[in-house]
Amino acid sequence: MSVINVGIIGASGYTGLELVKILIKHPKFQLSYVANSEGGVMLSELHPSLSGVYECKVLKADIDELAQECELVFLAVPHQTAMAYVKALIEKGVKVVDLSADYRLTQGLYEEFYCPHTDVKNLSHAVYGLPEINREALKSAKLVANPGCFPTSAILGVLPFMDKRLKNTPIIIDAKTGVSGAGKKLSDVTHFVNVNENLFAYNPLMHRHAPEIAQKLYVDFDDVSFVPHLVPVTRGMISSIYIQVSSDFDAFKVLEEFYKDELHVRVCKNPVDMKSVSGTNFCDIYVKQKGNVLFISSAIDNLMRGASSQAVVNANIMMGIDESAGIPNIAYVP
């Protein structure tokens, strides 16, 4: 297969950086177009860690130029911003992996938790980019909605046990994430003085990722009790999930059987941790049962499995190549 030209719009942020790091080493993708909303800078000015490793000019995003250069583009831009790009790119025949929330939800849910949707036509055709549940649909997708980080962790953890869950009982998710999940833009909440040696919940029970979790698990929003916490680490995420189940069974064997053919899910015999998945696309999952209570713990790198590496896996599947091509699989934190 010949080289596939791809581009990134939204190179300035943490997920944009992770996309660049993966794509410049990818065996099949050629990073041909790197852009943000302003352009006019070198990539190493935005990300000094790339100095002497990889350099290119960051352009101001131009749909016509991008369509001439690329077969596929990654959108690492905020919600609402992505919609305008997607509509124009799809019309030009460019495939898109969107890392924003713009195409993850039905129109009603999206508009309830975000803003009015201006591209309902493409919304109805978007494929939710969780390979473990949508691999076949991804093969023919033109537009992929890359999942949120919290939903990725939570859905992969609880999905194997949904048929054993007692009906009308809550799915309780206590999740903790590193500060990079808030993005580069500084706020009072993410200021070092506030985050350092601190831990706190934010948007409890009403976080925007709760309806995404509920929708993909096919349960009511009221069935999901989701509380995210910010912890003083740079990256990583752990979801502690509690559900009530109907019978006594070997939960570990259920988990092992469910993910036996999945390369990027590791079933663990001991409680999971953030360091073991840092810098990788792995989701590590642990389960423990006590009576009718099931505890599930899942760990991901919020910038990788929760964003950029999962986006590249989706792109691999869309373009008909090995889904693990170019995907880091060794944690870089000791």
UniProtKB/TrEMBL annotation:
- Record flagged with keyword NADP: yes
Q: Does the keyword ATP-binding apply?
A: no
Q: Name the active site residues.
A: 149
- Report any Pfam family annotated for this entry: Semialdhyde_dhC_1
List the catalytic activities from the record.
N-acetyl-L-glutamate 5-semialdehyde + phosphate + NADP(+) = N-acetyl-L-glutamyl 5-phosphate + NADPH + H(+)
Query: Protein name, please?
Result: N-acetyl-gamma-glutamyl-phosphate reductase
Give the GO terms filed under biological process for this record: L-arginine biosynthetic process
